[in-house]
Amino acid sequence: MDSKVKNILVTGGLGYIGSNTIVSLIKNGYKPIIIDNLSNGIYSRLKDIEKITGQKVTYFYGDITDESDKNNVAYIMKNYPIYAVIHFAAHKSVNESVKNPLKYYDNNVNNTISLLKFMKQFGVKNIIFSSSCTVYGEPNSYPVNELMPTKKAESPYGETKQICENILNNTSKVDGINVVSLRYFNPIGSHESGLLSDEPKGVPENLMPYILKTIKGEFEHLRVFGNDYDTPDGTAIRDYIDIMDLADAHTSALSIVENNNYQVVNVGSGNGYSVLEIINAFKDLGVEVPYKFYPRREGDIQKIYGDISKAKDVMSWSPKRTIIDSVNSILSSLK
Fold first, then answer.
1. Reduced to 3 states, what is the DSSP secondary structure of residue 270?
2. What distances in angstroms separate CA 329 from CA 188, 201, 238, 320, one per listed residue?
3. What's the pLDDT at 232?
4. What is the pTM of this model?
5. Which among 62, 146, 44 is positioned nearest to 111, based on CA atoms?
6. Choosing from 157, 184, 210, 240, which is the catalytic residue?
7. Given the DSSP bridges, would you call strands 82-87 and 58-61 parallel, antiparallel or unpaired?
8. Is beta strand 31-36 parallel, antiparallel or unpaired with respect to 222-225?
9. CA 43, CA 46: separation in Å to the nearest integer?
10. Of 280, 289, 198, which is closest to residue 242 (Cα–Cα)?
11. Whole-angstrom distance, CA of residue 121 vs CA of residue 74
């Protein structure tokens, strides 16, 4: 099948990462089909995607586990020849998962099992899984690479990603399903148009949407959780990757998914930045972000950043955008 006519089923395709990935898929000649129950996704992103790409996108409102005859994964797989699935649909807050672990085990793990059952039933052989650097736990050394053993996750969210990776690995051996599990780090930024930014429902759990809402005056100040970590400025260090680079990584993964039954690939910038360094990046561009320090949150780790050499080698992918590029895209979303 020619790449320009390959149908890609994208679960959770109206979320932050999913919607940007839809744009990358269209740009690279794929035909995305979205299923999203809008628990995290935003319906207006569909029009934003169509505005950016100039193309209509097929969208189904529904749940992965839905057994009805309409608007579910089985219906889509029966009626469209699906080349691959990109599986984003999951709850994603580390902090919320600590407070409500059953919600995360039920949704994240069961969704993946249901999806694999449908793939087996309808002969869909390829899946790109949205995993996370949280599978590494609190690393002993840096940067983390794919050969490092995963440690006990620091949160139920991270553990659901570990469980799903194990399910995918074992299923791939028995059922001939090809898997690329992308372990990505902290996505930031917006599409270069200023659209498709990170707009979580409720109080943001991640740094960038919290900064954005603070700049917009929705919060008096940014809450910085922890200033007593063993890092140069006392704040936690993360590997921040621009959302457009991350979106392109999923498209690159499609080019290798048939090569192996199962493989994991880190996707990040390869650099670590502290919370205060990110705040100062906004300051360097003329935007002050008021902040106050709060105690550390349960489930958060001190520091992590990735070795991305495997992504460069096996997917011919590398990040193209800098922290300043990402901050500029966030500021452009305010206009």
1. coil
2. 9, 20, 19, 14
3. 96
4. 0.94
5. 62
6. 157
7. unpaired
8. unpaired
9. 6
10. 198
11. 9
Q: At what angle do helices 275-284 and 323-332 cross, to 10 degrees?
A: 60
- Residue 240's nearest CA partner among 264, 200, 218, 209 is 209
Residue 270, both tokens: 């390869």
Q: Do the Cβ atoms of 63 and 115 come closer than 8 Å?
A: no
Contact criterion met (CB below 8 Å) for 128 and 311: no
SS3 1: coil
Set out the domains of the chain in order of their start, with CATH numbers: 3-188+241-268+305-319 (3.40.50.720)
Residue 138 DSSP SS3? coil
The candidate with the shortest Cα–Cα distance to 137, out of 147, 121, 129, 148, is: 148
Residue type, 216: K
173, two tokens: 């051996």
H helix or E strand, kind and range, residue 297 = none
Residue 157 annotated as catalytic: yes
Alpha helices (runs of H) in 137-274, residue ranges in sequence order: 156-175, 207-215, 243-254
DSSP structure string for 42-100: -THHHHHHHHHHSS--EEEE--TT--SSSSSHHHHHHHS-EEEEEE--S---HHHHHH-
Rounded distance, CA 63 to CA 40, Å?
A: 12
* AA identity, residue 312: K
Q: Give the per-residue pLDDT at 291.
A: 97
Exposure string over 92-108, b if 16+ CB within 10 A, otherwise e: bbbbbbbeeeeebbebb
Q: Give me 259's structure tokens.
A: 């090569």
Per-10-residue mean pLDDT, the chain, length 335 = 75 97 97 95 96 97 78 89 97 91 96 96 97 92 94 92 97 95 95 88 83 92 96 96 97 94 96 96 95 93 96 97 93 81
d(CA 237, CA 227): 11
If you search the block for the tokens 């650097």, which residue do you land on? 133
Look at residue 260 in the predicted model and tell me its pLDDT: 81
